[in-house]
Structure formats: structure tokens, C-alpha cells
TrEMBL record:
Domain of life the protein comes from: Eukaryota
Name of this protein: Ketoreductase domain-containing protein
The entry's keywords: Oxidoreductase
Natural source organism: Oryza meyeriana var. granulata
Family indicated by similarity: Belongs to the short-chain dehydrogenases/reductases (SDR) family.
UniProt entry tagged with the keyword Membrane: no
Domain Ketoreductase: 21-211
GO molecular function per UniProt: oxidoreductase activity, acting on CH-OH group of donors
Xref: InterPro entries: KR_dom, NAD(P)-bd_dom_sf, Sc_DH/Rdtase_CS, SDR_fam
A Pfam family reported for this protein in Swiss-Prot or TrEMBL: adh_short_C2
Length: 272
């Protein structure tokens, strides 16, 4: 009886496993990105952690992932770190090339978690052109470049998955977020249309739109009073946690999420 129950449980959870899959996670060493990288690795995926700037957080993350999974049956590294500016097409191509070369050629999953936000939260009338360009360069153009590459390079056997990141703030009309919310609205539209354009490839495309989540990005530029207000507005009485977001990405990347397509999933606890 115990063996039968164990086998039934294994069968039920198998679709959530990602053994044999190769994933690229942009912004993979940041708050949500690092949680996603670790979670996908825990499900069995090989993960290329894309970062820009200081390499130490990415190297530390990759070292931790590889140490945790050092007893993998094939003995191969579970993660690598790759520096890439996602707003640059040549660097995006190099990122995909590096992931394919490191993990056997096939690519299965793209998670586009890289993002830029102006932590001074200027109103639109005070938003500089440089700030606007920086946010659209990473958030919108970066999503475009990475998704374009993924659409042409992910496997077409039903395992191809693209997961972009929007924000529940798109619909909030919260002052100070005009340019940022506009970039994420662009991400949502691109994702939905791309999912339909990829008809017949077996590749799905969905966006995850987190609400207020306890990351460095969330806390930067906000006072204790600001944070208390966010928490007070939350129906569940708390901010989101990384552990609330990463499993959703894992689900969308797995066989279990294969029937979910062209969706924007607002993972926000009922609030923004």
C-alpha cells in the first residue's frame, strides 16, 4: 500500500519536473530572478543565469546551485553565469549561444526577469528622456530581443516555454509609475500576440505580473510609512514573497502548465 501511494504521488508530480530542460533566466541573479533560477534548478533544469554589472551575485548564486545539486546523476553543472545586456541584440545572441554550448545544444525555457525601475518614482512631467529610454531599453526592447531569439531557437516539441514579467502595477494608475507601467503594458501585449504567432510550434508564452513583493526593488526609495501602506492595502496582510512567485514560473515552464498560453497571470495576493 505504501509503495502504491508513493508511486501515485510520483506520477502526480512528474509533470512539474524539468529534467533534461535548459532554461535561460535574464535578471537571473536579482531578487525574483534568483528565486526563479534556484527553483528551476530544483526541478531539474539546467539554468543559464544572465546578469549585467557586478558578477559576484551571479557567481555566488551559480556556485550555490551547483553545490546543492553536486550529486546529480550526470555529474554536470546545473547552472552557469553569463553576462549579457538584454537591450543589445548581439549580447542576447551570445547569451543563447553560451547556454546552448554549455548544456548540449537544445534550449527549452526563457524567463525574462530583467527589469529597470527609477527608484525616485518621478511623475511623468519630471521623467527624463534618459530614464524613459533606460526602462524601455531593458523592460520592453530587452523582452523583444530575448523573445525573438527564443521564438527562433527554443525546441518545437511541446516543451518550449517563454515566461515574461509584467507587473500588477500596470492597471493600478499609481503616481510615479507611468513610464515603468508603460514598459510592462508593452510586455503584456507582446507576450499575448507572440503566443498566437507561435501557433504550431508547441511553444507557449505567458506573462507573470507580481504585485508588491518583498524584494530590494520594492524597498528601494520607500519610507517605512510607504511600506506600511502597501501592507495595509494587501488583502492577505503582507507583501508577496519570492516563494510566492518562483513556483508559478516553474509551473508555467513545466508540462503541467502546457495548456496555459497567451495569459497574464497576476500573482498579487489580491492587490498590487
Amino acid at each position: 500500500m505504501a509503495e502504491s501511494k508513493t508511486n501515485a504521488m510520483a506520477a502526480a508530480t512528474a509533470p512539474l519536473m524539468l529534467h533534461g530542460s535548459v532554461a535561460i533566466v535574464t535578471g537571473g541573479a536579482g531578487g525574483i530572478g534568483s528565486a526563479v533560477s534556484k527553483h528551476l534548478a530544483s526541478l531539474g533544469a539546467r539554468v543559464a543565469v544572465a546578469y549585467i554589472g557586478d558578477p559576484e551575485p551571479a557567481k555566488e548564486l551559480v556556485s550555490g546551485i551547483n553545490s546543492m545539486h553536486a550529486d546529480a546523476a550526470d555529474g554536470e553543472p546545473r547552472a552557469i553565469a553569463v553576462e549579457a545586456d538584454v537591450s543589445d541584440a548581439a549580447q542576447v545572441r551570445a547569451l543563447f549561444d553560451a547556454a546552448a554550448a554549455a548544456f548540449g545544444g537544445e534550449l527549452h525555457i526563457l524567463v525574462m526577469a530583467a527589469a529597470v525601475l527609477d527608484f525616485t518614482y518621478p511623475p511623468l512631467a519630471e521623467t527624463s528622456e534618459a530614464t524613459f529610454d533606460a526602462m524601455f531599453g531593458v523592460n520592453a526592447k530587452g523582452t523583444f530581443l530575448c523573445c525573438r531569439e527564443a521564438a527562433n531557437r527554443l525546441v518545437r516539441d511541446g516543451r518550449g516555454r517563454i515566461v515574461t514579467f509584467s507587473s500588477s502595477g500596470v492597471g493600478s494608475l499609481r503616481p510615479g509609475y507611468a513610464a515603468y507601467a508603460a514598459t510592462k503594458a508593452a510586455v503584456e501585449t507582446m507576450t499575448k500576440i507572440m503566443a498566437r504567432e507561435l501557433r504550431g510550434t508547441g511553444i507557449t508564452a505567458n506573462a507573470v505580473a507580481p504585485g508588491s513583493t518583498g524584494t530590494l526593488m520594492m524597498y528601494t526609495g520607500k519610507s517605512e510609512e510607504d511600506m506600511a501602506r502597501y501592507i495595509a492595502e494587501a488583502p492577505l496582510g503582507r507583501l508577496g514573497m519570492l516563494e510566492d512567485i518562483a513556483p508559478l514560473v516553474g509551473f508555467l515552464a513545466s508540462d503541467a502548465g502546457g495548456w496555459v498560453n497567451a495569459q497574464v497571470i497576476r500573482c498579487n495576493g489580491g492587490t498590487i
